[in-house]
Amino acid sequence: MELNIQIYSLIVSLVFGMLFYFLLDLFNKFNKKLKLIFKIVFSILFVLLMAIGYFGILLYINNGCIHIYFLLSIVVGYLIVYLITKKWFTYKKKNNKL
Question: Nearest to residue 24, comparing CAs of 3, 47, 40, 6?
Fold first, then answer.
């Protein structure tokens, strides 16, 4: 595989990890109100759709070749968004002591 295709695949994997964070967060908000059996079924469907989507993207970019560093790039993208949202979008209560 050529170097430019590998770099492009790494960038796409990183962005996919970021997108995965937002979609998982949205899915968890939707999934809270359901019964247990529906949670299980929808969780399996969500994971399958995300895996098929990622493999479809890689199939288009580099003929479906999956390397371990592509998967690590997904994890890094997920962690980047997680740390950013944790740091910037959580509010701490201030102690109002007199």
Answer: 47
